[in-house]
Design brief:
With about 400 residues, this protein is an alpha/beta fold. The chain contains eight helices and 32 strands. It has two domains: about 5-250, Alpha-Beta Complex (Spore Coat Polysaccharide Biosynthesis Protein SpsA, Chain A); about 275-410, Hexapeptide repeat proteins (UDP N-Acetylglucosamine Acyltransferase, domain 1). It is about 15% helix and about 25% strand.
Length: about 400
């Protein structure tokens, strides 16, 4: 694997994740309590023996950069290779990146200087465990200039992805970017393997902004593009609903994604916190509880991040609570995502109704009864917050702690 340079695209803005990406890149969004989304791509690299990794950033990179640091949790703090945080910049011929091809083009000098012969381009916003070695071996065996990883999706989902049509030898014969309908249900996973010389030439001789939308149709017409069929679990969590469903799927009796597999460890930067503390009157069922949490209330069907406080008299149902959230006695939280460092004062109810109208401002984004509370908020005591509600980070919620009643579908 010393022949392969990996580049993780982690710089895009993702408004479909609403408040979760208001102050961080999607790749830095917490997942499964203690992890960040980018941990999966980074761990896949090192578990596959790839130890020269570039992370391309742009949108709100501070949280992502602090998480990755020098790459020690992934054994990427190396003198040769290791992890490289590749920041955007403005130069004589370079502006802010407008797409993933544009991001690669901005780092063409870095790519050219690396000794590896192959370049593996990865999305930093997908949840999956994948050994890249079989894909690399297939690429070499097929003498392909480019290989794209594909995964079967439901026919109702093709509009979310680039859709690939292949022949009997898995050579790509057609590529459609987010079609309304398609006879093929093979979705591009946003994982591309290039011969480095081919990639460099394509970037130097074009001005296209996106690999999928702009370059893939051209590559399919002009060269040998191979499709590698990946059979394992893979989730694009680029929408609130997809993120919530992927998170809740971890709580099933036999989850499709096994994050406890000792043979494929998902590495992450862990906070220095003591073990979770569960009181004698706490009731916990079908939930994940992270280090540093103190639980004395009732938790069911939920994911509780590090450092969360849930006292006696508080009830959490089917929710995701991010790190360092403090919930006071008497609170009831149902089908909600509460971002980090938020304080919910006593006797408040969040997500208290079902079958409410969609969010008025973004009905396509939030319409299934979830409620989103952004980071660094303080919910006044005795407040009632409905469903399909969005409260943005650091919102000026109430003067003097006056209780709030926020109707279903509202945005603050």
């Amino acid at each position: 694997m010393n022949r392969v340079l990996a580049l993780i695209l982690a710089g895009g803005e993702h408004p479909a994740l609403s408040v979760l990406t208001a102050e961080r890149a999607e790749a830095a969004v917490p997942f499964a309590g203690k992890y960040r989304i980018i941990d999966f791509s980074l761990s896949n690299c090192v578990n596959s023996g790839i130890t020269n990794v570039g992370v391309l950033t742009q949108y709100r990179p501070r949280s992502l950069q602090e998480h990755i640091g020098v790459g020690k949790p992934w054994d990427l703090d190396r003198r040769i290779g290791g992890v490289h945080i590749l920041h955007p910049y403005i130069g004589a011929t370079i502006g802010w990146q407008k797409g993933n091809a544009d991001a690669l083009r901005a780092n063409i000098d870095f790519i050219a200087e690396q000794p590896e012969e192959l370049v593996l381009v990865l999305a930093g916003d997908h949840i999956y465990k994948m050994d890249y070695r079989p894909m690399i071996q297939a690429h070499i065996a097929k003498h392909a200039q480019m290989t794209v990883a594909v995964h079967s999706v439901g026919g109702h989902e093709v509009h979310r992805f680039g859709i690939v049509t292949v022949d009997h030898e898995s050579t790509v014969s057609r590529f459609e970017e987010k079609p309304k309908r398609s006879a093929s249900t093979l979705a591009s996973m946003g994982i591309y393997l290039f011969n480095k010389d081919f990639l460099l030439n394509a970037l130097r001789t074009s001005t296209e902004e996106n690999i999928g939308r702009d370059l893939m149709p051209k590559f399919v017409r002009e060269t040998n593009v191979h499709a590698y069929h990946f059979q394992g679990y893979w989730a694009d969590v680029g929408t609130i609903q997809a993120y919530f469903e992927a998170s809740m799927a971890l709580l099933t009796e036999t989850p499709a994604l096994d994050i406890s597999d000792p043979n494929w460890v998902i590495h992450t930067k862990s906070a220095e916190m003591p073990a979770a503390e569960v009181g004698t009157i706490a009731t916990i069922s079908n939930s994940m509880i992270c280090d540093g949490s103190r639980i004395n209330g009732s938790v069911s069907g939920s994911i509780i991040g590090p450092g969360v406080v849930i006292p006696a008299g508080a009830t959490i149902v089917d929710s995701i609570i991010f790190p360092n959230v403090v919930i006071e006695p008497g609170c009831t939280i149902t089908r909600s995502i509460i971002d980090r460092d938020t304080h919910v004062l006593q006797n408040s109810s969040i997500g208290h109704k079902q079958n409410a109208s969609p969010n008025h401002a973004t009905p396509d984004l939030l319409n299934t009864g979830l409620t989103l509370i952004g980071a660094h908020n303080a919910i006044p005591a005795n407040s009632t917050i409905g469903t399909n509600v969005i409260i943005k980070p650091r919102a000026p919620l109430s003067q003097g702690g006056t209780p709030m009643t926020i109707a279903d579908g509202s945005t603050l």
